[in-house]
Amino acid sequence: MRRQAIVTMLKGGDRRSIGKSNHIAKLVLSNPQRFPELVECLWDEDPIVRMRAGDAAEKVTVTRPELLNPHKRELLGLLDEAEQIELRWHLALMVPRLSLSGPERARAAAALQRYLEDSSSIVKTCALQGLADLARQDSNLRGPARRVLEESLLSGTAAMKARARKLLKVLQS
Question: What is this structure's pTM?
Answer without folding.
Answer: 0.93
